[in-house]
Design a protein that fits this description.
Strand content: 15-25%
Order of helices and strands: EHEHEHHEHEHHEEEEEHEEHHHEEHHH
Structural class: alpha/beta
Bound molecules: arginine
Number of helices: 14
Shape: elongated
Largest sheet: 5 strands, parallel
Distance between the termini: 93 Å
Number of strands: 14
Length: 411
């Protein structure tokens, strides 16, 4: 009888290599691996594919997901200025639902009954994979080998691999757990687990050491159309190119590092270091353009929704109806977010130094204190009288009661 098939999200590392053989030997399954290219650093995708086949996978599909990632995921993340806990631009949280889409499609293609991932039982990524897979096909069964097997440490896995004839990837033991894609890099574990340890310089690969940043600042103008970057310094770019270019430009100036303690879904606080030069630069520029193009109340409301959007996506709800509805709201706000923003990057800092838009709501005549002033200052008196009337009525009544509510200074 033919064996059931399991589709596994494969990275080429020790964990997922052991997963392949474990699913075969312990679960009696045939394994199809999926390797996603999302703009991460890697040793070569063909090499990773060969490794999967060597370990015993019946097939290994390498999928270039970059364009879809940029166009379907990062444009939305940028429109939402998404920053979890005001700091983290959701690097890993964005790639998991995309990889899940591929896992599910490959599962359908192969008639697979199972889908598997190599996440531990302690992190956020397991939740994101499993929620996304369930949203896309509630019937598929999910296996999380790392969460159920007896092995606890890397050495346990090496031992198991040797005993099962699995050629262990020659990649050397990394002192950190790293996940990256074109939106940024997440670095955790190792010495970073002591909150007082300064992040060692060697954890960073996208951002210049602050001691070595250039003497001269970089000025760059980003043009947006309906909230999406379309040109950099006048040169047309796709979303993917915009992200890649800004990674380089902002990274060179040492901009985009984050060192934070974040609240994981499972209730654990964890120390996380990130670098996301392009993502942060694009979000800063995009926000600055929204400041001039969005009507005041829309802007205020949107800034609130942005927080919810980030929490939702962080929590693995990419395919949820709430996230979908929030996207619809955010997308209507973006129709006027068209124009140019000039930013200046220098010594790890970013400043917005200019913005212009045909949809700008900034009215020089209303804003100026010069002779060109068109603002009707006579209207201000009635405005204050009425907007302050409730407070004035309250204060009069308190005085009548003989109360001052502790507001006097007693000088
Ligand atoms: N804490 C971040 C998040 O939950 C990063 C996770 C990175 N994943 C990893 N396997 N190192 O989005």
């Amino acid at each position: 009888m033919a064996k059931d098939i399991c589709v596994l999200a494969y990275s080429g590392g020790l964990d997922t290599s052991v997963c392949v053989r474990w699913l075969m030997d312990e679960m009696g399954l045939d394994v199809v691996c999926v390797v996603g290219e999302v703009g991460q650093e890697h040793e070569g995708l063909e090499q990773i594919r060969q490794r999967a086949l060597e370990v015993g996978a019946m097939d290994c599909i390498v999928a270039d997901m970059r364009e879809t990632f940029a166009n379907e995921y990062l444009t939305r993340a940028l429109a939402a200025n998404s920053m979890f806990e005001n700091k983290y631009p959701l690097v890993s949280a964005l790639s998991r639902p995309l990889i899940s889409q591929y896992l599910v499609e490959v599962a359908h293609k192969y008639g697979a009954k199972y889908v598997a991932h190599g996440c531990t039982g302690k992190g956020n990524d397991q939740v994101r994979f499993e929620n996304s897979i369930r949203a896309l096909d509630p019937e598929l069964e999910i296996i999380a080998p790392v969460r159920v097997w007896e092995m606890r440490t890397r050495d346990d896995e090496m031992e198991w691999a040797a005993a099962h004839g699995v050629k262990v990837p020659t990649t050397k033991k990394r002192p950190y757990s790293i996940d990256d894609n074109m939106w940024g890099r997440a670095i955790e574990c190792g010495v970073l687990e002591d909150l007082m340890n300064r992040p060692p310089e060697d954890i960073y690969t996208m951002t210049t050491d602050p001691n070595k940043t250039p003497d001269e600042p970089t000025e760059v103008t980003i043009s947006f159309e309906a909230g999406v970057p379309v040109a950099i310094d006048g040169e047309k770019v796709t979303m993917q190119e915009a992200v890649e270019k800004m990674n380089k430009i902002a990274g060179e100036q040492g901009y985009g590092r984050i060192d934070m303690v974040e609240n994981r879904m499972v209730g654990v606080k964890s120390r996380e270091c990130y670098e996301a030069p392009g993502a942060l630069a694009l979000i800063e520029a995009h926000r600055a353009l929204e400041d001039v193009c969005l009507e005041r109340e829309v802007l205020r409301y949107k800034r609130h929704i942005e927080q919810d959007w980030a929490v939702n996506v962080y929590n693995g709800q990419w395919f949820s109806p709430l996230k979908h509805a929030m996207d619809a709201f955010i997308s209507t706000t973006q129709q006027c977010v068209t124009g140019d923003v000039r930013i200046r990057l220098w010594h790890c800092a970013l400043m917005v130094t200019g913005r212009q838009s045909e949809f700008s709501l900034y009215d020089y005549g209303l804003a100026t204190y010069d002779a060109a002033d068109t603002f009707d200052r006579d209207a201000a008196k009635g405005f204050i009288d009425l907007t302050g009337l409730s407070l004035r009525t309250w204060a009069s009544n308190r005085r009548k009661q003989g109360k001052t509510d502790g507001l006097e200074l007693n000088i």
